[in-house]
TrEMBL record:
Family the entry assigns: Belongs to the major facilitator superfamily. Sugar transporter (TC 2.A.1.1) family.
Stored PANTHER family: FI08437P-RELATED (PTHR23503:SF127), SOLUTE CARRIER FAMILY 2 (PTHR23503)
Membrane topology recorded in Swiss-Prot or TrEMBL: Multi-pass membrane protein
InterPro entries, alphabetized: GLUT, MFS_dom, MFS_sugar_transport-like, MFS_trans_sf, Sugar/inositol_transpt
GO cellular component: membrane
Name of the gene this protein is made from: Dere\GG23332
Name this polypeptide is given: Uncharacterized protein, isoform A
UniProt lineage: Eukaryota, Metazoa, Ecdysozoa, Arthropoda, Hexapoda
Chain ranges passing through the membrane: 12-41, 61-84, 96-118, 124-145, 157-175, 187-208, 269-292, 304-324, 336-359, 365-391, 403-423, 429-449
Organism whose genome encodes this protein: Drosophila erecta
Keyword Membrane: yes
Keyword Hydrolase belongs to the record: no
Domain Major facilitator superfamily (MFS) profile: 16-457
Amino acid sequence: MAEGKQGWTALLMLICVCITVGTVIPVGYAFGVVNAPYAFIRSWIMESALTRYSSRLGDSQMTIMMSAVVSIFLIGGMLGAPFAPIFSARLGRRGILTLSGLLLLVSCICQLFCRMANSIEMLLLGRLIAGLAAALVYATQPMYLVELAPAELSGSVGVFTCIGITGGIVLGQVFSFDFLLGTEKLWPYALSGSAIFVLIGLAPIFWFPESPRFLMSQGRREKARVTLMRLRRDEGRVNAEMAEFEVTSEAERKRVTMKEVLCNSRLKLPLIIVCSFHFVQQMSGISSIWFYSIEIFTQSGFTAAVAMWLNFSLGLLNFMSSLLGPWLMKSFNRRLMMTISCLFSAIFLTLLVVGLKLMLTIREFSFACIAFLSLYIITFNMGLGPIPYFIGSEIFETPSRPSAMAFGSFFNWLANFVLSMIFPTVNSAIGPFVFLLCVVFCAYGFLLTCRYLPETRNRDTKDVALLMENGFKSKIK
């Protein structure tokens, strides 16, 4: 690693904020915007099917249609993930984020005019395209920021993905409130509101530099040096980093495909870690919490309107706790934060199960459940929330990094889709015990971290990669 420490610069902070606003916040927005206008969208679909196809949809058919509206975004994410390394190699990190922004704008246009065109297909297409764009964002945005930042800030910039997702969910909830755009007439504007953030955030993207590591992998040495000087403003630091790039540049010029990553035994363990962390992040139940919290609040005696505001408060807590990420990742080791996050997430989810069962007979336990939910959200954002997004950039070297990040993105979307499909059914069958399934995955994340994740903070990726090249026989340090 290059000698000397370097803190934040104005340019690096501007890039992190703008890229997050323009690409990641719209992804979180897509998660959070659908819930409030759900009834209006359902009513419009029923009316549109009747007028366009002379077909009156029954309750079961409407349930399928609304499930499609929600889940097609996740399907788009799974379909888009494999294309991330292909586009990344041809367009570069900045280019693929620009493409993502364009796809997000097309998605917003489809959703904005779907009601005017009386087209259910436009709504579904818009959600599908948003999912495709989100997959590219998940695989590229953290990698781009980590490759722009000095090594000692890799974790701090990596958590901007988590900040953007949580912030986008809150903004989606705000835009879809009935006193703003969540009305029978304005819900298409709510669904397409993320276009504002795309236009604002990505407006200066062509002024931002391309990743110097990517430039070196393309043989553009002088351009990489100019970019580093612009980012670091320290000639000594630039010389040291360029020397590091020179050592690995020959190997980095050959892109490693997803198939090659999958078949390389030396990359087996880091690939399992990246995919597992993404899978555990979603299977820990964070998405399902937002649906279950409404029921907890209403059973606590609050009205439905107040329960919605309390649910929004949990979303705000989720966002606020994610803001601690840059400081936590800069100050504490990855292994420590991930083990604490997995362990205490499992503990608070277990307590939540106990509280939900006792709440049926002792009403006061409902308030304990609110506390357990809040504590779970805080501990989730200590490690499970941010680390999966950037850990691939810290354990994979440049040639295999895009493919590895794409695998992680795919498993993130897969877990989100699986949980959204099975959670309602399992919840109907066994009630609050469904969260014990989430506890199992948190426990798996805890054990995987303790046994196999090497510490990556302030370490060069090539040194970390050597620690894992023997697979499950590796001695982790």
